[in-house]
Description:
The protein is an alpha/beta fold. Helices cover 34% and strands 14% of the residues. The chain is built from eight helices and eight strands. The protein has helices spanning 17-26, 42-52, 80-97, 114-131, 156-166, 177-183, 187-194, 219-228, and strands spanning 3-7, 31-33, 55-60, 101-103, 137-140, 171-176, 198-203, 234-237. The chain has an eight-stranded parallel β-barrel, surrounded by five helices. Strand 1, helix 1 (17-26) and strand 2 form a beta-alpha-beta unit. Helix 1 packs parallel to helix 2 (42-52), helix 2 (42-52) packs parallel to helix 3 and helix 3 (80-97) packs parallel to helix 4 (114-131). The protein starts with a strand and ends in a 33-residue tail after the last strand.
Amino acid sequence: xxxxxxxxxxxxxxxxxxxxxxxxxxxxxxxxxxxxxxxxxxxxxxxxxxxxxxxxxxxxxxxxxxxxxxxxxxxxxxxxxxxxxxxxxxxxxxxxxxxxxxxxxxxxxxxxxxxxxxxxxxxxxxxxxxxxxxxxxxxxxxxxxxxxxxxxxxxxxxxxxxxxxxxxxxxxxxxxxxxxxxxxxxxxxxxxxxxxxxxxxxxxxxxxxxxxxxxxxxxxxxxxxxxxxxxxxxxxxxxxxxxxxxxxxxxxxxxxxxxxxxxxxxxxxx
Length: 270
């Protein structure tokens, strides 16, 4: 049975951010994720998690000036100091929330630029080594060029190959099914191929990025496939509801209220 995490950046936006934890728990979710927590005190977020018995599945490292279009620093050779500081900024939030994995954003750069590739490798290694003593995984997420033109990490095979090559125990792949379908297609075979390095999964319908209840992909089949593959990590619901969030949770009804704990930093059964 998949362990679904409500994405509070995109879901339950009918209420202020801190109140979304309450709303997610009331809807039957036992875990949450979001893009960025940094506009709120770490202790306030931790309190909402504890009050509602929620597990924090994931959040992103600081991306830079998001409103100005920045999408992280990892592939930017002249922003390594900012990358280092972003990890220091995130650490108190990781400690307050008990999260086990953080998404390292690659930034806007060309993968055809050797300097960008070298900067990305350096940043990935540094981030994983920095976070490892704290029991935290680093996850890398390929993002499709339709949603984020110019994003450095826009290929799942490149990401998987780098993770395998570096062979760092706390470095994993963030497999967003929505992005994979747009970039490559053939989602089921890629899940089977890449499962050994997957640390987090996200979902949305394609092409609209709404509830996972139709359009191009058969999500009930994919959820069963995750069980067949032995995936025990979280499935983040990173989608934009068509209307009021609770009105679109029919797909989730049979999964609601299941109780889980995050026992594994890898997300995959040994």
